Amino acid sequence: MPKAILAHPRLAVNAAEVAVDAALAGLGVTRVLSYQVSDEIHSGALRVVLEAYEPDPLPVSFVHPERELLPLKVRAFLDFAVPRMRTRLAAL
Questions:
Q1: Judging by beta carbons within 10 Å of its beta carbon (0-12, 13-18, 19+), is residue 19 exposed, middle or buried?
Q2: Quick check: pTM over 0.70?
Q3: Which residues, 6+ apart, have CB-to-CB distance to 84 below 8 Å?
Q4: Closest Cα to residue 20, out of 40, 50, 49?
Q5: How far is 92 from 62, CA to CA, in rounded Å?
C-alpha cells in the first residue's frame, strides 16, 4: 500500500458537481465517486491520477422498509432506477 499523503486543499466545496467543475476548469485534482465523473473520464476531459490510492469499490443498494405491498411511488422509482444504476455501474 502506498504511503498516505496529507493534503492541504485551497478550495473546499460541499457538492461533487462543483468539485468536478473545478477540476474541469484546471483548478487541481478532486476526489469524487467514479459514477460522478464517468462521462468526463470516458470523453478524456478528466483522467484518473493517484490510482493506487483509490479505495475498493463499494456495493450500491436501494433500501426501503419491507412491506407486503410497496407504495406505487416506491415501486415506480425502483423499476426506473435499478436497471439504470446497473447499466451505469457496469460501464465503469
A1: buried
A2: no
A3: none
A4: 40
A5: 19
Phi-psi region of 74 (alpha: psi -120 to 50; beta: other; left: phi over 0): alpha
- Collapsing DSSP to helix, strand or coil, 92 comes out as coil
* Residue corresponding to grid cell 456495493: 59
Would you mind telling me the total number of residues written for the chain in this entry?
92
Give me the residue spans of the domains in the chain.
Answer: 1-56, 59-92
DSSP type of residue 49? -
**pLDDT of 49 higher than 70:** yes
Most distant pair of Cα atoms in the chain: their distance: 51
